[in-house]
Amino acid sequence: xxxxxxxxxxxxxxxxxxxxxxxxxxxxxxxxxxxxxxxxxxxxxxxxxxxxxxxxxxxxxxxxxxxxxxxxxxxxxxxxxxxxxxxxxxxxxxxxxxxxxxxxxxxxxxxxxxxxxxxxxxxxxxxxxxxxxxxxxxxxxxxxxxxxxxxxxxxx
Amino acid sequence: xxxxxxxxxxxxxxxxxxxxxxxxxxxxxxxxxxxxxxxxxxxxxxxxxxxxxxxxxxxxxxxxxxxxxxxxxxxxxxxxxxxxxxxxxxxxxxxxxxxxxxxxxxxxxxxxxxxxxxxxxxxxxxxxxxxxxxxxxxxxxxxxxxxxx
Lengths: 156, 149
Fold this sequence. Notes:
Radius of gyration of chain B: 16 Å
Radius of gyration of chain A: 21 Å
Strand order of the largest sheet of chain B: 1-2
Strand content of chain A: 15-25%
Number of domains of chain A: 2
Helix content of chain A: 25-40%
Structural class of chain B: mainly alpha
CATH superfamily of the largest domain in chain A: Glutaredoxin
Shape of chain B: globular
Distance between the termini of chain A: 71 Å
Shape of chain A: elongated
Oligomer: heterodimer
CATH architecture of the largest domain in chain A: 3-Layer(aba) Sandwich
């Protein structure tokens, strides 16, 4: 074994300092994630969604056309903590606001779609206008305030 | 439809792992006790394997939560799908095995570094309710780290 491969004793003070640094780093990452997740990012010149390609199904029937001013298209996966609560939240919105539709696509086995829309985390929600153009994108569980202001953007 | 569980159960388990990972890092940085740190990683690997195969509710920490913690808490506001935390157990198993392999290969500070990864992920899970492995599941799949569910 080479000399440099041998473990050198790290003094206790340094070990405590390392652990404190790690604790601060992890806590900062957690706080940063809390602040940043669920916010909407505007998409400039967004593409038009092809519902047939996505294979969107709602209440057992394929969705062929968008009928409301705003559509929240939610991408989910099987191993997703916040997909269920997000779907619940968007469904509640759909029930109370006639201008809103919620669509959900499980892309666990649709890597083609994950690649096409560059999805790195689930849920990721695309906000579509009536014609199906992507207007903005929400990574993570949307914040309630984000959804309200997104709907507000559509000048209803 | 997968079973629904109290989301605080996996977070309680993650908090125990969080404390364990601090102990691992601390003792793994001393050559005299590094093997003890690796042994703790072995224990963690066995626990994660139980969670990966049988799910969080049949995990010893899940049992502790149900028996001693949950009776003291109010009813959960909502339940959670059991699959994401079970997947997270698999991520924990993977990190533990990496720690053991690094120890076997005598990689300097390998056990402590793997302990750091475990600490990072369990902190987010326990205190922020953020399952890192679940959130980036598709991202991992896309770059080929995960092949199938």
